[in-house]
Amino acid sequence: MTQRALDSSGEQTPGPSRPAMIDAGAELDPVHPMDLPPSAHDATGLTTAEVAERVARGEVNDVPVRSSRSVTEIVRANVFTRFNLIIGVLWVIMLFVAPIQDSLFGFVIVANTGIGIIQEWRAKKTLDSLAVIGEAKPTVRRDGKAAEISTHEIVLGDVVELGPGDKVVVDGTVAEADSLEVDESLLTGEADPVLKKPGDPVMSGSFVVAGGGAFTATKVGREAYAAQLAEEASRFTLVHSELRSGISTILKYVTWMMVPTAIGLIISQLVVKDNNFKDSVARTVGGIVPMIPEGLVLLTSVAFAIGVVRLGRKQCLVQELPAIEGLARVDVVCLDKTGTLTEGGMDITEVRPLNGSDEAYVHQVLRSLGSSDPRPNASLQAIIDAYPAGEKSDKGAEAAWSVTDAMPFSSARKYSGAAFTETDGTSSAWLLGAPDVLLPDGDPTLDEIEHLNQQGLRVLLLARVPSGELDAPDAAEGDVPTALVVLEQRLRPDAAETLKYFAQQNVATKVISGDNAVSVGAVAGKLGLAGAENTLDARKMPTDPDDMATAMEQNAVFGRVTPQQKRDMVAALQSRGHTVAMTGDGVNDVLALKDADIGVSMGSGSEATRAVAQIVLLNNSFATLPSVVAEGRRVIGNITRVATLFLTKTVYSVLLAILVVCTQVEYPFLPRHLTLLSTLTIGVPAFFLALAPNKERAQPHFVRRVMRYAIPSGVIAATATFTTYLVARHHYSGPGALEAETSAATLTLFLVSMWVLAIIARPYTWWRIGLVAAMGLGFLIVLVVPWLQDFFALKLVGTTMPWAAVGIAVAAAALLEFSWRLVGRRFGA
């Protein structure tokens, strides 16, 4: 099994298996674990029989870990909507009083609802399968062996092992602690890690930042402290996004406008006008139905769902749906170097003894340090690979040194350490970590290290310290530099292309690392990051938020950054109005990931980072991010476009109804006419436009951006259509006059709506031109094919009035162009 551990920069990288820490000599006690001291089951864990007994009693961690809504919830959410209820009632009425062609709008709603359910179900299947891949697998002891199990299989009394980066998945009591430091900030808001000792409680939702140990589960399932929070956090959700809240706001106002208008229209058509009852009902319904932008909600859900499926195929798990939208708005990406720009593994290129140290002795120290840590980080693993335990030194085989004290790496300290009793009985204590932390300013060795850092190499200092408490704040005082350990990191082959993509998309890239700033800048420079030469040591970073924001905007690379500083940096950028995405895989990234607008974690990252991130890259490929950004921009940009189509229809429908009520004339359209127009000018083209590529960064103020175009477009369309209708009422007379008037008004409304579509389809490509042309051809076919003329009750009579309708539409189109240009100049595109 592969665990995660912190390297010397404070970043998370793969480490080898952690030991089971099991004492085979311990015996099990059959008493219920809640009645035992914490250590009773610690050695070997529960037996299979005890596990089965607890499962039978229901003492199992049965909180459902869900990444998506259930099928029942999907069906309910798509079927039982406010507008489906309104349209459903109107549909039933029309089935009784009018021909089937006037009830087509009902079948369209059924089809739309079915499409929405199918698409979200596809997204659910994709998410659920990815969630299983990315699920945390805690290690528990059972029958004297350590094994990985699913979180929901943990039972009361299980002994769960912990290592750096592991999330505490249920509440419990610490049974073993080896310098165990736990971060409870996600629960308490307190950022400082808490040192845990045997007998101390640990809460679900916290995570390990240093050291290791094990705990006994005392509360599982819904009794666990963070169970409900975790369930909600991991749920696939459709809320809390500007897009969806904006659409909800629009629909709320549409409802308020629709109710009085519909009442007035009903009174006008049924009471004031002495028409055929069934025809009056049909025309009343024809006026009410188009006021409802029912397809907008559907199209938004479909676009998001298809986005999730597309990203899922690229091994990208979207844990919160608004993350797609959020990444579309991102203008700053903060990158963690290790695991993002570089691959996890490292290689030792050189060991330089200092101050006349014996090289063979240095190798023995490094070999012993490697053996002292059961959970080596990437840097220490590179040392272990170069100097494995049991290997003969230059002087022949040497007995292993015994470890008397060990201190795991901490991203806050920037070093680790160990104390030994050597083979001759003497004692020694050593620290291994960041040279610029262990050495005082002005030390001549720093100049040598600076030269190595400029080559993009990572340098660790091995220093001997006086025997004492290794984890004391002054442990590094009086240290004697003994050797430099020079490591080379492996660059990700796809990192350069990804950085280039962000530069092309005007997204600023900031590299934030716990490593030396010059070294990080050299790595970023090799990958072609613009501004990589502008580096800043975070220890010199101003603490004032405004000054920090300025420093963040002026520099591209930051080194020696502490976990709390990462969080402050994100906040500083957000204070300047930036939308910030943060990537990381280490436990030291959790706070920043949580506070960023969008948190992106690597699939191989710690359980804690995967838990708080909105997006998890299961393939661990930084190169997937451009796809995520592009998908978000496609969804948001296109929904903003097509929302204008839907709301233009709502505006002109409401205005037409008001004009009809005020002038006391028959409503010009039957439902079949507006079903045809909606299908050709909105429904079909909107579906294709919503799924088209779109690289434009999403802009804020969705409602304002949509309505500033929809309102003038709707007003112009309604005015032109009603003008044609009034002119036709004076032109035609006798039997069949109303049908001829309706046909002329329909022609004007179609042409104006087509012009709105033509504007929204810009900039033109061959398929966009083909789409607009195909919709126009469809309407032309209806006008010339006799049985379609009868079916839709559309037949142009004479030549004067049809050409007048075309002329009015042309004038309206010119007015549309003028109004859109005016709005664009006054309010921005």
Number of helices: 27
Q: Could you please say which CATH topology of the domain at 243-308 and 629-826 applies here? A: Calcium-transporting ATPase, transmembrane domain
Percent range of helical residues: 40-55%
User: Largest beta sheet: what is the strand line-up?
Assistant: 10-23-22-21-11-18-20-19
Q: Describe the largest sheet.
A: 8 strands, mixed
Computed over alpha carbons, the radius of gyration is 34 Å
Roughly what is the average pLDDT, rounded to an integer?
Answer: 80
**Gap between N and C termini:** 53 Å
Q: Which regions have little confidence, pLDDT < 50, spanning 5+ residues?
A: 1-40, 229-240, 393-397
Tell me the total number of β-strands.
Answer: 23
CATH class of the domain at 243-308 and 629-826: Mainly Alpha
Sum up the overall morphology in one term.
Answer: elongated
CATH superfamily of the domain at 243-308 and 629-826: Calcium-transporting ATPase, transmembrane domain
The CATH architecture of the domain at 243-308 and 629-826: Up-down Bundle
Structural class determined from secondary elements: alpha+beta
Pfam family, one: E1-E2_ATPase
GO cellular component, one term: plasma membrane
Main location: membrane
Keywords: Membrane, Translocase, Transmembrane, Transmembrane helix
Question: How would you describe this structure to a colleague?
Answer:
There is one protein chain. The protein has 829 residues and is α+β, with helices and mostly antiparallel strands. Among the domains are: 243-308 and 629-826, Calcium-transporting ATPase, transmembrane domain (Up-down Bundle), CATH 1.20.1110; 316-341 and 493-625, Rossmann fold; 352-388 and 401-483, Calcium-transporting ATPase, cytoplasmic domain N (3-Layer(aba) Sandwich), CATH 3.40.1110. Strands 10-23-22-21-11-18-20-19 form an eight-stranded mixed sheet, with helices on both faces. Strands 3, 4, 5, 6, 7, 8 and 9 form a seven-stranded antiparallel sheet that branches. A hairpin with a 4-residue loop joins strand 13 (402-410) and strand 14. Helix 8 (277-288) runs parallel beside helix 22 (671-690) and helix 21 (625-663) runs parallel beside helix 23. The chain starts with a strand and ends with a helix. The model is unreliable at 1-40, 229-240 and 393-397 (pLDDT under 50).
